[in-house]
Amino acid sequence: MTQWECAIEGHGETFDRVEDLIVHQATAHDRAECKVCGTVLPDGYFAIRHAFEEHSRAEYVRAYDATAAEVRQRESVKESIEESADIREVIDRLEGGTGGL
Ligand SMILES: [Zn+2]
Ligand SMILES: [Zn+2]
User: Fold this and answer.
1) How does pLDDT run across 33-70, given as a tens digit for each residue?
2) How far apart are CA 11 and CA 86, in angstroms?
3) Taking residues 83-93, what's their average pLDDT?
């Protein structure tokens, strides 16, 4: 079974379900500010999704000083999460929780 590891600031905690990982990242870690537009988002998947869906790859590379390899790596994380996760469940859990979105 795939283990999902929280990579935020080298945290390293692992989760059996990707939904648990995303909820963890959105609630246990500080929110992240998008370096392109300044929007504050839950860190982890939601921050990555925002960066790639709202901004061009070139904007991302400039703002984050990222290499092409880093961009590819983050895109592949986003894709593998989207293949595995029930994002609807995650959003329901976050909205139903005390933290909210
Ligand atoms: Zn974590
Ligand atoms: Zn942004």
Assistant:
1) 999 999 999 999 999 999 999 999 999 999 999 999 99
2) 23
3) 94
Residue 62 placed within a domain = yes
Q: Is residue 101 part of a domain?
A: no
Determine the structural domain holding residue 68 and report its residue range: 4-96
27 domain-assigned: yes
The number of distinct structural domains making up the chain is 1
What is the dihedral angle through the alpha carbons of 46, 3, 5, 100, rounded to the nearest 10 degrees? 40
Stated pTM of the model: 0.86
The rounded Å distance from CA 38 to ligand 2 centre is: 6
* Crossing angle (nearest 10°) for helices 18-28 and 87-96: 40
**How many angstroms separate the alpha carbon of residue 85 from the centre of ligand 1?**
17
CA of 38 to the centre of ligand 1 (A): 22
**Does a structural domain hold residue 36?**
yes
